[in-house]
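Worked example

This section walks through a single chain of length 184. The input is the sequence exactly as stored; nothing has been trimmed or padded.
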Amino acid sequence: MRRYDIYTALIGVISVFFSLAVYNGGLPIFFKFLLIIFGVIVFGHSAYTLYRSFNDAKFFDDESARQNFQSEVISKISLLNKKGEIINSWELYGKTAAVIGKDIGENHVDIDLSENPYASMIDVEHAVLNYADGNWYIEDLDSQNGISIKKIGQDKIYKLSSLQPCKLDFGDIVIVGICQLKVS
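Given that input, the structure is written out below as tokens.
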């Protein structure tokens, strides 16, 4: 539920209490009538706004809306083989950061690419994923072989600048060294 919808619901509830307080108050009948009408209009507007919101995909009114919404939320990153098939996945749900690299000795990374055939192209701490303001960002940690991104729906591959975060979108392909990771 969006913050706007919560505020709208609260205004609607407050308008009902406002109308009840006016009705029980000692105002002249004409003012009571005007203020109650005002409270009913505010409540009606709040109810209509919430009704429209409930019909949007944000509130999962139907199963297709639920699937469309869930398909847009980034919750995992998957390692792809040369054919584009998923060979390993890591959950991002509930995390705020994840380090991409290789587990070597005491070093621990969240997304371990050391078992990949192209592991020699991956630095120990190659990149970091950070979650901020409802979005995932990737940042190259000044790695030797860098990071590139193929944005969803585009054929162009973008090379990331070192230590410059880049926003990730659902379906993007992140190329770490030459390993392909799909954001889904």
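What to look for: The chain has two domains: 3-70, 74-183.
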